[in-house]
């Protein structure tokens, strides 16, 4: 009986030793090779679609450059004042109340120049002025507008005003 137990333990030990050796010599390298092949196949798929991705990225970059390019003119406050004064000549109801100094902010490869204007007039004329600036596009992009009522303390009347934020972009 002792002999059978001993043989049984030897067989179990031999079996575990063979499994361990085969795991180290055959299965582990096979798993690593399988992972490596999958990774290389993924890289090949990425490389196969790379020209299409490059073309899409170039189109996006071209669109962004067009958007920035139309507004990438070096616009000065004098240009804005000239455009507004040309419009005001034709429309007596609009007047420029406030023009703040330029606010510059650097982002990646370009500068964002922001101008804040405050105009007063009737709603329709202010909206027409806004439309004129959007169509003309020579003074930059209109970033934001805000309409509000301003009370004149001297006369006690309220006037409609529009805050207009215009942005231009220049490459660094």
Cα(first) to Cα(last) distance is 91 Å
For the CA atoms, what is the radius of gyration? Answer: 36 Å
Number of helices: 3
The overall strand count is: 5
The residue-averaged pLDDT reads 82
How do the SSEs run, as a string of H and E? Answer: HHEEEHEE
Let me know the largest β-sheet. Answer: 5 strands, antiparallel
Quaternary organisation of the protein chains = single chain
The proportion of residues in beta strands is: 25-35%
Give the overall silhouette. rod-shaped
Structural class: alpha+beta
Low-confidence stretches are none
Work out the helicity level: 55-70%
What does this structure look like?
- The structure is a single chain.
- Helices cover 57% and strands 27% of the residues.
- By secondary structure, it is of the alpha+beta class.
- The longest helix has 70 residues, at 2-71.
- The radius of gyration is 36 Å and the shape is rod-shaped.
Task: Describe what is shown at a glance.
This protein is an alpha+beta fold. The protein contains three helices and five strands. Strands 1, 2, 3, 4 and 5 form a five-stranded antiparallel beta sheet that branches.
Tag the structure with descriptive keywords.
alpha+beta
Topology at a glance:
Elements: H1 2-71, H2 77-90, E1 95-99, E2 103-107, E3 110-120, H3 123-136, E4 141-151, E5 158-171
Antiparallel strand pairs: 1-3, 2-3, 3-5, 4-5
